Amino acid sequence: MSPIEKPTTVAHPVENQHFGTWQRQHMRWIVAALIAPLGMTLTAYGVVEFGPQAQINIHTVTQTLATPPLISRDENQQHDRMEVIRSGDTVGRILSRMGIMDQEVQKFIQTDATAKKLYELSPGRILHASSNENGEISQLTYVNGAGEQVRISRTANQLSASSEPVATQKQTFMKSGRINSSFFAATDAADIPDAITQQLIDLFASRVDFHHKLQKGDQFSVVYESEVHLGAIVRPGRILAAQFINNGNVHEAMWFADGSENGNYYSLDGRSLKQGFISNPVKFSRISSGFAMRLHPVLFTWKQHRGVDYAAPTGTDIQVTADGIVTKAGRDGGYGNFVEVKHDGKYSTLYGHMSAIAKGLKAGQAVSQGQVIGAVGQTGRATGPHLHYEFKVNGQQVDPLTVAMPEGKKLSTQQLADFAPLARTMKRQLSVAGQVELAQLD
């Protein structure tokens, strides 16, 4: 017996002898099973923490790099800028927004006749400028309402100005709006040019009272063409089609080349909208005296007033009420400066008390409905600025406010056949314009 061995005596009942043998055999397996993972774990940790480390040789490499050259400021480098003109803008204010302070150019604009055209700024148009790092302008360009490109250039420190017509393209626009406060506020909100707004008024003036009968919620749609240069409108063109809904009443019109010099406007079913005579020879005026007996303001006698007086400021345009031929243009004691026009058939009109007759207007000259033939004044026997307007049938004065006026031109059968498909197209375009406006409101 080994000195380190110590005899152990275990007492077991006879009947449990086999169980003890089984227990001793299996206990060794259980202990081995418990110790084995621990041994593996210790071995794993041993590998990680105490394994042999490879020798790493570090070499330092030094390389000389060239210093990049310093980039000097290029004072001649050009910067192109553009700015949309706002209401009330001046050239100086626009250049300030661009970050350009070139007093020499601004002084040049004040003194050079061509450069002064830059003062004719219109909101919505674009001013282009090229300048160097010091803010000196090398080129300034602007396309004005006359379709001219005004250019200021600096060459060898010398400023020069030039203007030349620009090439334009016709483009069709569709706009619509709804009146909330005023008609003009609605057209401004719809970004409709003022010239197109005035055409819209003229087109529906005989059916819509733009002075007193417009209501909140009235709607309008318009299809028009304009001359465009580089995406900017140079000149508004004519209305091609329009719709105006006033108090639930729908009014529609479209332009058609009917063989006349300038074409005419018709309803979408082909009825002429051009009256034989327009009702008002002076826009935005008031009737100060009608066709009736009155006490003459100068002679102080009771006389029949054989015309209608339209009060308006001196200088207000007077338009001829129908196509015709000028028979007289001059001065008369009572009428002062006046113009008389012979129209088709039995009709003629007279326009008196003008401050001036349109330049170049003379007897024998053809005039078109709506053409300006003079300006409101108080020449002759008149106590204040107004137009005295007479309407004659077979040489006799009649009341222009009550007389039955002749109808406008009617389309022929062939013209109606040409008109119909165009009307359908315009109807669709007006519908699209109206839907866009409603979508924007939603």
UniProtKB/TrEMBL annotation:
Species the sequence originates in: Chitinibacter bivalviorum
Name listed for the protein in its UniProt record: Peptidoglycan DD-metalloendopeptidase family protein
GO molecular function, one term: metal ion binding
UniProt KW keywords: Hydrolase, Membrane, Metal-binding, Metalloprotease, Protease, Transmembrane, Transmembrane helix, Zinc
Pfam families named in the record: Csd3_N2, NMB0315_dom_I, Peptidase_M23
Cell location: Cell envelope
Main location: other
Domain M23ase beta-sheet core: 304-400
GO biological process entries: proteolysis
Lineage of producing organism: Bacteria, Pseudomonadati, Pseudomonadota, Betaproteobacteria, Neisseriales
Cofactor: Zn(2+)
Ranges for domain Csd3-like second N-terminal: 172-292
Domain DD-carboxypeptidase/endopeptidase Mpg-like N-terminal span(s) in chain numbering: 83-144
GO cellular component: cell envelope
